[in-house]
């Protein structure tokens, strides 16, 4: 697929609408419990209150030197930045496995927040990158320093290495930081490049691969988002490396975690349902990329479609945007929950 490396080739190769059941359905093993801990998000709210689904960090989760206070110390919270990272822990029977999904924007925020939350990053068993944008991969530098020379498996789409830029009319183009597979290999990551759906953790975690684009309203990135074809910069609306992580919570339905949701939240959920044959969406968490003028017309139909799916939990984060947050909270008041750096969402299968 799109072996010529061009944006035009990628557009031709992206999955088209496919109705009915998947030709090669994924046998996703149900799990008994899944917990998603947001290690990095755009927001940190120390006053959020936990409930039966969400565990919130305390008002202070650490301390730092500060000579202007008596005793020379002050309390600190967690780092919030325009990025996303989540720790995903799944339990099936007696077996528990933890993956890291994205790593945030800056080299240090992931590690700082993990330390303040008491998360041992050396205990993770693999890394998944939702796509190649730098606000999801910047924390790999700090993670590599923490892991040392250990070979950590990392699943990534082969187009995550694409050079991209923002070319806004009237301004100089701004080229985005581009991931280097050679550098990541040198830092100890064992890269697994996959375009197709990938089953991880003994078949109980699904990485979607390239997502079928089946809605009429999720139109991708604006013209300013461009990719280098090898000879020229061209509009890159699809971000074909965008993937989501999916878990089947026994007796409840699918738990879907997105990084930015560039393929469209509804496209992603449809794709996951079709691949797995599981009709019920139990939870949707992560970035939904509905902020800004280009995406605001998509909010209405997205909210309508998600309302019809009737999930039990919706935790929009990162690039969702405040207008979409308000719309989702109003339409799904029982399901919507505020995302924040440090929040953990624990979902459990019904008792057998």
Automatic annotation (TrEMBL):
Q: Name one Pfam family in it.
A: Lactamase_B
Task: Give all residue intervals belonging to the Metallo-beta-lactamase domain.
Answer: 94-190
* Signal peptide (UniProt feature, chain positions): none
**Which molecular function terms from Gene Ontology are attached?**
transferase activity
Look up the coiled coil feature and give its residue ranges: none
What SUPFAM superfamilies does the entry give? Metallo-hydrolase/oxidoreductase
- The source's domain of life comes to Bacteria
Q: What's the protein name? A: 7, 8-dihydropterin-6-yl-methyl-4-(Beta-D-ribofuranosyl)aminobenzene 5'-phosphate synthase
């Amino acid at each position: 697929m799109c072996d010529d490396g061009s944006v035009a080739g990628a557009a031709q190769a992206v999955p088209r609408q496919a109705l009915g059941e998947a030709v090669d359905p994924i046998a996703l093993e149900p799990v008994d419990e899944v917990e998603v801990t947001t290690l990095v998000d755009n927001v940190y709210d120390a006053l959020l209150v936990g409930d039966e689904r969400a565990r919130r960090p305390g008002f202070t989760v650490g301390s730092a030197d500060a000579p202007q206070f008596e005793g020379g110390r002050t309390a600190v919270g967690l780092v919030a930045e325009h990025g996303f990272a989540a720790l995903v822990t799944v339990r099936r029977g007696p077996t528990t496995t933890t993956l890291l999904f994205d790593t945030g924007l800056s080299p240090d925020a992931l590690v700082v927040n993990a330390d303040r939350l008491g998360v041992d990053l050396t205990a993770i068993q693999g890394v998944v990158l939702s796509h190649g944008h730098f606000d999801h991969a910047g924390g790999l530098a700090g993670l590599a320093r923490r892991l040392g020379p250990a070979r950590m498996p990392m699943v990534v789409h082969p187009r995550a290495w694409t050079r991209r830029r923002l070319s806004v009319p009237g301004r100089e183009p701004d080229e985005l930081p581009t991931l280097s597979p050679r550098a990541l290999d040198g830092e100890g990551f064992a890269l697994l490049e996959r375009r197709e759906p990938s089953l991880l953790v003994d078949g109980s975690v699904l990485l979607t691969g390239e997502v079928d684009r089946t809605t009429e309203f999720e139109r991708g990135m604006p013209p300013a988002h461009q990719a280098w074809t090898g000879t020229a910069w061209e509009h890159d609306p699809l971000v074909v490396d965008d993937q989501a992580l999916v878990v089947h919570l026994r007796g409840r339905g699918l738990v879907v975690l997105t990084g930015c949701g560039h393929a469209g939240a509804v496209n992603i959920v449809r794709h996951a349902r079709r691949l797995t044959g599981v009709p019920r969406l139990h939870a949707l968490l992560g970035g939904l990329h509905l902020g800004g003028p280009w995406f605001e017309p998509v909010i209405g139909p997205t909210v309508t479609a998600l309302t019809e799916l009737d999930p039990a939990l919706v935790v929009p984060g990162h690039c969702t945007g405040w207008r979409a947050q308000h719309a989702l909270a109003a339409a799904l008041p029982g399901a919507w929950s505020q995302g924040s750096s440090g929040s953990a969402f624990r979902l459990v299968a019904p008792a057998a």
